[in-house]
Amino acid sequence: MNWLANNWSSVLELAGSHLVQSVVPVVIGLLVSVPLARAAAGSRWLRPVLVTGSSLLYTIPSLTLFVVLPLILGTQITSVGNVVVALTLYVVAILVRSCVDAFESLDRDVLQAATAMGYKPVRRFFGVELPLAVPVMVAGLRVATVSNISMVSVGAVIGIQSLGTLFTDGLRRSIISEIVVGIVATVVIAVVLDQLLRLLGHALTRWQRTGAGARRPAERRRDKNGPGGARGGAGALATVESGGAPA
Amino acid sequence: MTDMAIRYRGVSKVYPDGTAAVDNLDLDVPAGSLTVFVGPSGCGKTTSLRMLNRMVEPTSGVVEVNGRDVSSIPAAQLRRSMGYVMQQSGLMPHRTVEDNIATVPRLNGVSKREARANARELLGSVGLDESLATRYPAQLSGGQQQRVGVARALAADPPVLLMDEPFSAVDPVVRQDLQRELLDLQQRLHRTIVFVTHDIDEAILLGNRVAVFARGGRLAQYATPEELLRAPADDFVADFIGRDRGFRSLSFENAPVDLQPVTVLNADTGERTVVGPGSANPAPWQGAGAAASSGWVLAVDARHHPVGWLPVDERGEAAGREELRVGGTLWHRGDSLRTALDAALSSPSGQAVAVSEDGAVAGVVPGEDVMRAIEAQRAARHDRVESA
Lengths: 247, 388
Description:
heterodimer; A: MetI-like fold; 11 helices; elongated; B: alpha/beta; Rossmann fold; CBS-domain; 2 domains; six-stranded mixed sheet; 19 strands; 34% helix
């Protein structure tokens, strides 16, 4: 732990840079994925193209992407921009899929009611579709964020500063403490961001933890496809009667 | 209020694969009336309804609402001018009850405070407690959700209300309440309501006029419920209305029957009295008389509400309480012949129990009297037809 005490400020600096490289791609990736996913959801040709395409994107090894991107973008190979672009692509790869699922999980009756009330498309999207898509979307966002945090480290191999630098440096100089600090710091960042997202999702979906809304998504889906199709009416009544305690 | 609020002129909807959902529909809906579109599934009733707020665009023909061709009005604006209630309430799960009700006023730019205050007022008029205002839809029962759906449709005070099978997903008891409340609401508000259902009983109960649709989107008959039951236009309509339409048409006949006195037995005190028209009510019991000849006495509680029937033996002695037969349905004075017949048929003694407004026994109507009244009505109607 001597090592940490002596290198405290540089670890902090690397952690800050790691954090930026993790969060910026998630934010950009989310802003890109949501409109893409909305366009793809329910579209006969765009959906397979985007969903399959984004899955393929994820199979490209990150190191390859870090090396190839500067050739395409014309940036310096050690530029943080490369990492941000590459990681944004991975975030999109994960998020498009889960955002498509989120939009397709919306209750059609609710959407139809919104239209019949006189919602125009843009207002309906922000006022109805997006808030209702949050639960499924947050799940995808958490996966993307955590996987992103681990992937940022890979950039260290080509010389981009992050907590990954502690691994490459520690390995080269045979300092075990440095490697351990890198691992622990990465895990701490991952856990903290994941919990923040969980709380955010929690705050945005207060309506879900009341009565029938407290049912888990899997149950709700079963309900919808179930033979009785007892949605709203008897279904809601039954869950209210069965207690409807927060899950 | 005799002008037409809604007109369909030569309206058809044909899907690209050639199936016709609506076939050359001509139909006028008078302002302030409740008109029901009824028919089997796939008959185009919902499609026709949705043409009114442009959720469906017709392939040909013109749909007019309040004198304006709907295709000339921007869809969102048109929809905000009509209330819409659907089968699954379609409430926004992420909004509280008051915010759900406030939806259309908010879209129209009314302030949140004003819209919510208005929403709370509306809760009362659909029979819900104001304390539900801050609940989420998932915390309500199916029936409560439907009521909120109705309140939401009324929030912007629209002259036209579209209801797409609004009560078909709730259980029968709740459905009856909702139907009755809709009729009450309509008596107060006089909106132009178009109501879609597949349930002919609901159509006959609610509609000022009923449009029966046949498969393929053909309008088979458009008439008052009474005409529909009495003179179905064709075999399809007759078949759709069902076998007991003769029985159901009695709903429209008031019952010109006279009440007969009945011996009642206070179930608590064992005291016997005679209740009926003409006598001082209740009159003291004079002996076996009517009770013995009919074989029954009517047991009542302290408030004189009927409890059931007790058989009596030839000496006029009533059987013990363990012999009590639960009574039949009740007939309120002024109710239809259908109710009277049902009360007589369901009564163990064969006598329909008539009750006054406070629920106390007013007398009885023997089944034969009901039948005689029905027969008299039929004969009168027959004469009317012949002389016409």
